[in-house]
Amino acid sequence: ALLLLAAAGCDTPPNVELPVDSCDLVSRAEVEAAVGSRVVSVNLVPTMLAPNKETICDYRTEGPFGTVIVYSSAAGGIPESYLRRSVRTAREGLTVDGIGDEAYFRPPNSITVFLGDEYFTIETQRWGVRAEQAERIVKGLARVAVDHVTSTEG
Fold first, then answer.
1. Which of 34, 65, 134, 152 could be disulfide-bonded to 127 (CB atoms 3.0-4.6 Å)?
2. Which long-range contacts (CB under 8 A, 24 or more apart) does 93-102 make?
3. From CA 39, how far away is CA 4, in angstroms rounded?
4. Model's pTM, two decimal places?
5. CA atoms within a 13 Å half-sphere pointing along the CA-CB vector of 50
6. Which residues lie below 8 Å from residue 75, measured CB to CB, with a gap of 6+?
């Protein structure tokens, strides 16, 4: 299940804005490079919590990790009560230094990064015996996404 979290953090300037389109956080080529296999489709899809709003970017790959899922808080559509509960869950994850204002890795395959008042989550669908690889993939893509967002701020 995809972790969706409420925003927090203070180190990033408050004018940092994540894209409304979750697919704008990382590119098809960046996902292909991270997972080492071809991305066969990229689609915005709804969540069970927001079935009428396409909020999650779904990068379907040919590789062993299946789909890479990306969610930007700017996409909206998630009930506030779920977000409050989810932020507590994220912060139970392992703290990751050097990515955004705050970042939490949820083993074996998910990272949530906070930037100013926004956040995003990246996870792999499958990991199998490749948990360490899944961790490297999501952390690497999170760094790429932060670079994209912060390099466009002026």
1. 134
2. 96/139, 96/142, 99/139, 99/142, 99/143, 99/146, 100/9, 100/12, 100/142, 100/146, 101/8, 101/9, 101/10, 101/11, 101/12, 102/8, 102/9
3. 23
4. 0.83
5. 20
6. 20, 21, 22, 53, 55, 56
Nearest to 131 by CA among 108, 106, 110, 104: 108
Bridge-based pairing state of the strands 118-124 and 67-72:
antiparallel
In this prediction, the residues of the chain whose per-residue pLDDT falls under 70 are 1-15, 48-52, 54, 128-129, 152-154
The two tokens of residue 154 are 């002026």
User: Two tokens at 102?
Assistant: 């705050």
Residue 33: how many other CB atoms lie within 10 Å: 15
Query: Do 59 and 125 meet the contact criterion of CB atoms below 8 Å apart?
Result: no
User: Taking the CA of residue 17 as centre, how many other CA atoms within 13 Å lie in the half-sphere pointing to its CB?
Assistant: 8
Count the residues in the chain: 154
